[in-house]
């Protein structure tokens, strides 16, 4: 059986390396690739790959959203393998909710990546049962009341709030989210206003408390 694979990563050199690795296996064929979320969403439905390897962080969006979009647009949907440079609980949560079959760090060995492609192509899952249990617990908590101030934040503002709690400066947040430093400053001002805080240190403490309570999402 031939396994067709689509690659989504904003770094061409990474795509080339993965494609070369995958095609070293006789039964794997790379049928397409993209460097942006928009390209992937446009190309995957026509190519109908068995497996889509999706970078989590992209210049124009994220691989989790691409996973959700293509799984609803393609029948049968491809098995999605999320690939990321570092562990991120929020991205893992999103990946599971979007229907991804696996979540791998880019440090994965070539042998393990090939094994992962074969596993998900055959209908298997690479999601850690413990991680899935955490997600189910978060869903259970979803019925608990959440601070309306937090609910008023946009997804971008929530993500920036989390990065503030991690101690990142506006410049570092801009680099992380592919945003201009001035744009980040505007987001920070907006979220401080919505939360009723005057200083970002207050927001950092607030975000840490939200995490502790399991409400941040």
Automatic annotation (TrEMBL):
| Domain Response regulatory: residue ranges | 4-121
Q: Which domain of life is it from?
A: Bacteria
* Modified residues annotated as 4-aspartylphosphate in this record: 55
Carries keyword Metal-binding? Answer: no
Extract the InterPro entries matched here: CheY-like_superfamily, NreC/VraR/RcsB-like_REC, Sig_transdc_resp-reg_C-effctor, Sig_transdc_resp-reg_receiver, Tscrpt_reg_LuxR_C, WalR-like
Pfam family, any one: Response_reg
Q: Which UniProt keywords apply?
A: DNA-binding, Phosphoprotein, Transcription, Transcription regulation
The chain positions of domain HTH luxR-type read 146-211
This protein is called Response regulator transcription factor
Question: From which organism does this entry originate?
Answer: Pseudonocardia zijingensis
Q: What is the lineage of its organism?
A: Bacteria, Bacillati, Actinomycetota, Actinomycetes, Pseudonocardiales
């Amino acid at each position: 059986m031939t396994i067709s694979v689509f690659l989504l990563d904003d770094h061409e050199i990474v795509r080339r390396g993965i494609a070369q690795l995958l095609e070293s296996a006789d039964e794997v064929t790379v049928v397409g690739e993209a460097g942006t979320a928009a390209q992937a969403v446009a190309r995957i439905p026509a190519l109908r790959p068995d497996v889509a390897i999706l970078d989590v962080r992209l210049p124009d969006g994220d691989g989790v959203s691409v996973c959700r979009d293509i799984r609803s647009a393609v029948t049968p949907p491809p098995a999605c393998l999320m690939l990321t440079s570092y562990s991120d609980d929020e991205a893992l949560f999103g990946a599971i909710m979007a229907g991804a079959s696996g979540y791998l760090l880019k440090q994965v060995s070539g042998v393990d990546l090939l094994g992962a492609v074969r596993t998900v192509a055959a209908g298997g899952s690479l999601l850690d049962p413990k991680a899935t249990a955490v997600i189910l617990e978060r869903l259970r908590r979803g019925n608990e009341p959440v601070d309306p101030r937090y609910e008023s934040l946009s997804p971008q503002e929530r993500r920036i709030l989390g990065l503030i709690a991690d101690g990142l400066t506006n410049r570092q947040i801009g680099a992380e989210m592919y945003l201009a430093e001035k744009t980040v400053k505007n987001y920070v001002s907006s979220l401080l206003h919505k939360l009723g805080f005057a200083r970002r240190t207050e927001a950092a403490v607030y975000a840490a408390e939200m995490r502790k309570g399991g409400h941040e999402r």
